[in-house]
Design a protein that fits this description.
The protein has eleven helices and 20 strands. It is of the alpha/beta class. The protein has two domains: 271 residues, Aminopeptidase (3-Layer(aba) Sandwich); 124 residues, Roll (Aminopeptidase i, Domain 2). It has a nine-stranded mixed sheet, with helices on both faces. Strands 11-12-20-19-15 form a five-stranded mixed sheet. The chain has a three-stranded antiparallel sheet with strand order 5-6-9, with no helix packed on it. Strand 2 and strand 3 form a beta hairpin. It comes from Arenicella chitinivorans. One of its GO terms (biological process) is proteolysis. InterPro entries: Peptidase_M18, Peptidase_M18_dom2. It is an enzyme of class 3 (hydrolase).
Length: 416
């Protein structure tokens, strides 16, 4: 039987096929724990020793605990709600040889081949009008498999295992049914129910219906969709909920990290800064608060793959289940500094949490996170850290079960 963190993570991922669903589920978690739900358009009356939660665009979330005096500094944990996937196009209906298909757009750096031959469903946010003509939005989730992208048989492409290239425009349209007269808008209207009379727009993602599972002879691994970055999102949220301290603390999970974070709800946007501004009364106080605070940017790291060990610097190849990974890049693709790293290492040593370090090979390009973006926007001391994983950006990824527990312990130690 998996420990509560793993069980909770699996349930959270299964219930969160899109950033909208993840944010909704997080909001419920915090509200059920006594966090007061705020609306950005209202006046706020923030009090000491209280807890609050606020969302933006239904896809990004901030929860915070004020402690005795938040002006003495806040310990912040950041993650992101989005994952690479296939998104449904605005006018998606394609009818070919009697099959009803949907055109898709690639969102983020998707590893495309694993999306073929999967039992796919569709979820996200639908906007339209109700029977009174008011604009309304609704989250939907078909939940059951409704689509598939079949591979081409090897008999029709003898070079498939050595040279097949997937064309997103021509090879990825979903196959829904053999009823091409049925429009996708009609399907959405039926899924929305009586709350919507007319569909005007939507933001819908495809996802694999296979549930998360614990794998390995000794239950060493968790295999699931969207581990990047719902693993960090769930653990960061749980750390804020479970840590007992008078220390002011904040959790944020932004949307749109996988496509550059440049949006109203992304890390390049003003969401976090606007919340911090409402906790202070002047530019000077905001600067003072930020200077006394620090951010733990949590996003999964590349664990060394035993079949592709040459893709790592041999001195910086993180092992699954050997502890969270401090991510370092001298070209500022990660925001870790020697000071932020030293402080984190000290906390983890006291908590008995093992740590590893990752530096990308010097002849390879390095990815990035919300860490450098948030550090740039706020000027806050930041550390980039994450659980090591395999198959990042695949439709199904793998991480270590012990690392989930280690990262949770590390986040709790950081917040406290």
């Amino acid at each position: 039987m998996p420990n509560p963190i793993i069980a909770g993570l699996c349930d959270f991922i299964a219930a969160s096929p899109t950033p909208f669903h993840a944010t909704q589920n997080l909001k419920i978690m915090f509200a059920d724990a006594g966090f007061d739900v705020l609306n950005e358009g209202d006046n706020w009356d923030i009090k000491p020793n209280s807890a609050y939660v606020v969302t933006r665009n239904d896809s990004s979330i901030i929860a915070f605990r004020t402690g005795k005096d938040w002006m003495q500094g806040m310990q912040m944990v950041g993650a992101h709600t989005d994952s690479p996937c296939l998104r449904i196009k605005p006018n998606p209906d394609v009818k070919t040889h009697g099959y009803a298909q949907l055109g898709v757009e690639v969102y983020g750096g998707v590893l495309l081949h694993p999306w073929l031959d999967r039992d796919l469903s569709i979820a996200g946010r639908v906007s339209g009008t109700d029977k009174h003509g008011n604009v309304v939005s609704k989250l939907i989730d078909f939940k059951r498999p409704v689509a598939v992208i079949p591979n081409l048989a090897i008999h029709l492409d003898r070079e498939a295992n050595s040279s097949r290239v997937i064309n997103p425009q021509t090879h990825l349209p979903l196959i829904l049914s053999q009823q091409p007269e049925q429009s996708f808008d009609d399907l959405l209207l039926a899924e929305c129910g009586e709350s919507m009379a007319n569909v005007l727009e939507y933001e819908l993602s495809c996802y694999d219906t296979q549930a998360p599972s614990v794998v390995g002879l000794n239950n060493e691994f968790i295999c699931a969709a969207r581990l990047d970055n719902l693993l960090s999102t769930y653990i960061g949220a749980r750390a804020l909920l479970d840590s007992q301290s008078d220390q002011a603390a904040l959790f944020i999970s932004n949307d749109h990290e996988e496509v550059g974070s440049s949006s109203a709800s992304g890390a390049h946007g003003p969401f976090l800064k606007s919340v911090l501004e409402r906790l202070t009364h002047s530019a000077v106080q905001l600067t003072q608060l930020i200077s006394r605070s620090s951010l733990l940017s949590c996003d999964n790291a590349h664990g060394i793959h035993p079949n592709y060990a040459d893709k790592h610097d041999k001195n910086h190849g993180p092992i699954l289940n050997a502890g969270p990974v401090i991510k370092i890049n001298n070209n500022q693709r990660y925001a870790t500094t020697s000071v932020s790293s030293a402080k984190f290492q000290k906390r983890c040593q006291a908590a008995g949490v093992p740590l590893q370090k990752f530096v990308v090979r010097s002849d390879m390009a390095c990815g990035s996170t919300i860490g450098p973006i948030t550090a740039t926007e706020l000027g806050i001391e930041t550390l980039d850290v994450g659980a090591p994983q395999w198959a990042m950006h695949s439709i199904r990824e793998t991480a270590g079960t012990k690392d989930c527990e280690y990262l949770y312990q590390a986040a709790c130690a950081f917040i406290s």
